[in-house]
Here is the input.
Amino acid sequence: MSTGIKWQKSSFSGAGGEQCVEIAAQVDVILIRESDEPGVTARASHAPFAAFLAGVKTGRFDSYQ
Here is the structure.
């Protein structure tokens, strides 16, 4: 991973900052990682990530089965 990536922490992160989700927007992808595992990064293109966020905001994933 490039060291020039600017990571943004979730606004729901606690003061400790060790258990939070971070994202970084790149030209063609969105990068996602957990701050306690910074070497493990997931990638998603912009449209699928936007659809995922829309689902989160509407509660689509609130029920676990």
Summary: Residues 3 and 27 are 16 Å apart (CA to CA).
